[in-house]
């Protein structure tokens, strides 16, 4: 008799995680390979990356009954359908489910329980699931439309603070010296030039965010203000979710991403949640499991559904 | 005796204007050619474009004593120096001055008098010159850093308003239907996809701005709010300038760019200026002369200086 197995995939922008497991969750193999960004890379590259991961993990494709994959770039309907189609072709005998990357991350973060996940890395997004299983996300609109409170946004506000000071109407800030050093120039015109010439302005700006934390710790008022605003925006995402989800009073708020390394952001975020969510008695804490483990939890539920 | 002549150049992003004139301002030729974007095009292309304009205007290079050029992309110091060097090589006997595009636009707008120019097209910027000849600019940081109140910004806020409604926490808005029609899809995920794939997201977003005006005129509250905020941002640029320039009480505020076609923006802008500038008795009005004519005014002053 051929045994049944499960596949869980976290197809991220920079790396892809794959778990091959038994229906009870026992892991047969956990491998990691290059990113499958369904938004930007061609489908041929997705297939190559998956074939490599299947080989590396020694996946016996005939045994796979369920695949659950989370994909970055999920908001693009065409791309999402192509990715699902590709997985189905590679695993003809399996039930295939493709979800957004944040959906599997949420599942892992709360271990499948009701709760909220706030991701603040280069971008920002929050999602939550309530007791009825209703899933909702807010934010995650990308750097052209906001991504308030993200690393990109913090870096952008840092440059804006320096430009305001340069134009003579903003407060003086030590961010000017810090950013000059990082960007290799003391000329703001050259900063703009570098920013508008780079392929990934959001990454360039996100790299500046740690300097804002540093400046804030040194007592720089504009830097402190930026971090408080970032935390307020992130707390705002949670507030919006709670207005539309039926969450228990002690629901966890899980945090993921580099922005949370700032104690100032974390402190203000906590304080803001306390003020905005009247009866909330939960905790702010790190995720329980990883996103790919979240995908595995979902695959397990599909197995028995 | 070889007569003296002047050259005035407005090297814009999409077109270049050239005026060849006598020292008294009498125009010998006015020609227009392709854009010389010193920020993005290679110097070889600048030279070709200039040679073509010189030929078209029949410029006798030996007679040119003064050249004044305004250049888009002026904030890039390397590029600016290259452009000045190229002009000097092409006209070895002339005094060459390269200024920012907004500087010649301001000169033309006010006819060289003290005053303020507020440009709100795809981007937004304001500049002013006071009685002592002090020049100042605020804004113009580009779409990655703000450009509040610009066409890009209005279009971006329109998409944000629709996304907020879609996520269930923003007010319903007829912008959804309007943008669906323009963007050829009713799926917001596809809007984001198109936006993040295009080469010029700022142009794509600026194209949406007229729909905001239309929706506002039809009574749509979110659209009206966006236009009021845009006007407030633009009035804020003027306020900042007045804090640092010594302007007469009746200084003119000249407006240029597509955003001003919205009566709602213009009305609110006017009202805001009245509230914020206590003793101001000036007018909001269109420019007196074009940017290339502004460059000619400067060239004339250089001739006699």
Any key phrases for this structure?
2 domains, 5-stranded mixed sheet, Nucleotidyltransferase, domain 5, homodimer, alpha/beta, 19% strand, globular
Architecture overview:
The structure is a homodimer of 305-residue chains. With 305 residues, the first copy, chain A, is an alpha/beta fold. Chain A has two domains: 5-110 and 290-304, 2-Layer Sandwich (Nucleotidyltransferase, domain 5), CATH 3.30.420; 114-286, ATPase, nucleotide binding domain (Nucleotidyltransferase, domain 5, 2-Layer Sandwich). Helix content of chain A is 46%, strand content 19%. Chain A has helices at 43-57, 77-90, 101-110, 151-166, 175-183, 188-197, 201-206, 209-217, 221-244, 263-276, 291-304; strands spanning 5-11, 15-21, 27-34, 64-71, 95-100, 115-120, 124-129, 135-139, 253-256, 284-285. In chain A, the strands form two sheets. In chain A, strands 3-2-1-4-5 form a five-stranded mixed sheet, sandwiched between helices. In chain A, strands 8-7-6-9-10 form a five-stranded mixed sheet, sandwiched between helices. Chain A is globular. The interface between A and B is medium-sized, with 34 and 35 residues.
How would you concisely characterize the structure shown here?
The structure is a homodimer of 305-residue chains. Chain A has helices spanning 43-57, 77-90, 101-110, 151-166, 175-183, 188-197, 201-206, 209-217, 221-244, 263-276, 291-304, and strands at residues 5-11, 15-21, 27-34, 64-71, 95-100, 115-120, 124-129, 135-139, 253-256, 284-285.
């Amino acid at each position: 008799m051929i045994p049944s197995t499960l596949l869980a995939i976290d197809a991220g922008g920079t790396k892809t995680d794959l778990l091959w497991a038994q229906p009870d969750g026992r892991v047969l193999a956990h491998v990691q390979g290059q990113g499958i960004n369904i938004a930007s890379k061609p489908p041929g590259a997705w297939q190559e990356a998956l074939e490599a991961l299947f080989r590396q993990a020694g996946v016996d494709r005939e045994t796979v009954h369920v695949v659950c994959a989370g994909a970055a770039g999920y908001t693009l309907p065409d791309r999402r359908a192509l990715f699902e189609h590709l997985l189905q072709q590679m695993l003809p005998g399996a039930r295939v489910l493709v979800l957004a990357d944040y959906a599997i991350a949420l599942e892992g973060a709360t271990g499948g329980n009701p709760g909220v996940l706030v991701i603040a890395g280069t971008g920002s997004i929050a999602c939550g699931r309530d007791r009825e299983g209703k899933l909702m996300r807010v934010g995650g609109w990308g750097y052209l439309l906001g991504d308030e409170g993200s690393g990109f946004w913090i870096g952008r506000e840092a440059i804006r603070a320096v430009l305001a000071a340069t134009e003579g109407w903003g407060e003086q800030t030590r961010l000017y010296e810090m950013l000059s050093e990082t960007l290799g120039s003391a000329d703001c015109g050259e900063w703009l030039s570098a920013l508008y010439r780079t392929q990934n302005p959001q990454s360039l700006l996100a790299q500046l965010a740690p300097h804002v934390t540093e400046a804030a710790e040194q007592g720089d008022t504009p830097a402190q203000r930026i971090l408080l605003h970032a935390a307020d925006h992130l707390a705002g995402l949670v507030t919006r979710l709670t207005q539309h989800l039926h969450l228990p009073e002690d629901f966890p708020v899980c945090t993921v991403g580099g922005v949370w390394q700032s104690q100032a952001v974390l402190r203000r975020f906590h304080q803001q949640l306390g003020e905005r969510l009247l009866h909330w008695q939960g905790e702010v804490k790190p995720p329980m499991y990883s996103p790919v483990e979240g995908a595995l939890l979902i695959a397990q539920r599909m197995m028995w559904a």
